[in-house]
Design goal:
single chain; 78 residues; 3 strands; 29% helix; 23% strand; Small CPxCG-related zinc finger protein; HVO_0649-like
Amino acid sequence: MASDRSRSPFERLKEHYDHEELVCPACGFEDEDGAWDAEADGADIVYTHACPRCGAEREHTLELSDRETALEHVEKRQ
C-alpha cells in the first residue's frame, strides 16, 4: 500500500471522494463500487461523479492558479 507521501494531495483528495462522498444527495443511493473522475487542464482540477441510480451529477472544482496564465503555459508546452 502506498504511503500518503508517495501520492499527491490531488490523489489523496480523489481517494477521499471515492470513500466518503458516494451517497447521492438527490436519491440517497450509496454507490459502494463507484469512483469519482478527475480531469485537469493546467488551471483547474474538476472531480465529478454521476449517480448510477438517478443520474444526478456532482462536481468539485479546484482552481490551481491564475487561469489565463496557466492555460497559456499549457498551450506553450503542447
